[in-house]
Amino acid sequence: MAAQAPSAEVETMWWPELDQMLTSRMVDTPENVNEVADRLLEPKMNVVLVTTGSMNPIHLGHIAMLTTAKEGLEAAGHTVLGAFVSPSHDLYLKGKCKAKKLHFEDAATRCQLADVAVAEIPWLNVSRWESDPSHSAWPDFPVVRRRLVHDVEKTLAMQRPCSKACVCVLYVCGADHYYHCGIHADTVVIGRAGDSLPTASPGDNVYAFAAVSETVAMLSSTVARKALAANDLETATGVLGPRVVNAIVTQNLYGVAAAEQDDGGCAQTHLSARSGPPDAERGDGLSKKTPGDTTVFISATSLSRKWKTIPETTLDSALFFFGSKRKWLFPVTEADRVEAKSQPGEYHRMDADFLDLILQKESRGQVHFLKHPTLDYQDYPGPVDELAYTRASEWLEALGFNKLQLSRQFWQSKAIGRHPFGVSAEDVIENVERGYHEYSEVKALLVQSDSRLFPQM
Description:
The protein is α/β, with parallel strands linked by helices. The protein has 19 helices and twelve strands.
């Protein structure tokens, strides 16, 4: 089916962070690599990646595919400025899923789940151009790539009119898609076990890499949907990751039932954030903030990507409750800098103005870092820190909020109902006692402790 051609306008809202991508790590290059006349991808070329697909829902394999492409290109000397996942248009899903009698969620929901999936990956964003309902027909992947090429080049022309810097936009896909669609250029192909990878052809901007993890490479949305329909949240979490599953459970998507079954066959329910109708529930990304609430941003990485779009009054009054160490954002010694660079949040690349904002708010007591500076944190989820939330509670109490509900007795005796964050009392207890910073558990803890707190990513 033909799709409408990309418009002549540059609407960077379709490509979040595109402006920042094209200013943060650019290197000067001698020619426009998107021209057919000369497609040679030279060392230290600037690259933006994009992948499309139903993403019904997005799973860890989608992210792993882009990560493999990024790492492979960077190992070859190229500079990957960023990447986009682009969920398919509803018109495509309706035709595909109706024929196969498959369940699907609408584009707005699939994009929202993709936002959750990439929230902690600074170089990866969600594009809504392909899925925008204003299209009269669904845009296929070549059209999506051409639109991104168009917007990249227009943005560059405005940002750097005298620069020689150019950007190559590469489409990332699996080997089966590459061969089935007869793609011959501007592509990074990621293969699974047993796949016959195409021969790399730099002259056509074709690169091929084997998936780093075959387990991840075999993940699929089909497996996830079947697990969700059966309320097998353990399997679903292995495919989608805990945050996406929490978002799905919160919104009762993909046929998830109202309650899971525990090993004894009894319904396992979830914590209620507050009494009242569903639209009064808090912090799930879709809920309402009421007058007098204080917004609490709980992810430094997520906030660093969107803070310029948030009203100044909200930023000024908000609290920042970050799960990181302070020195990851503000390293003093060389050891601090090495530790910061080893973290997935890429704190060392955060915008200087954003860091200045944190310092300003910290001077007013509005910032708290959960991890103690001496915590020997190597890999997720890190070592146990039993006092982490005691320190956080003292910070909130000093600001006039209620102390955090940290006792096991409180959570075990709590009247239990459906919780908008998709977590159980035991999940919150474990998060508190170990000093972890799992987002849904943190949100539940905050709103159960003080209804004036409005936690957001």
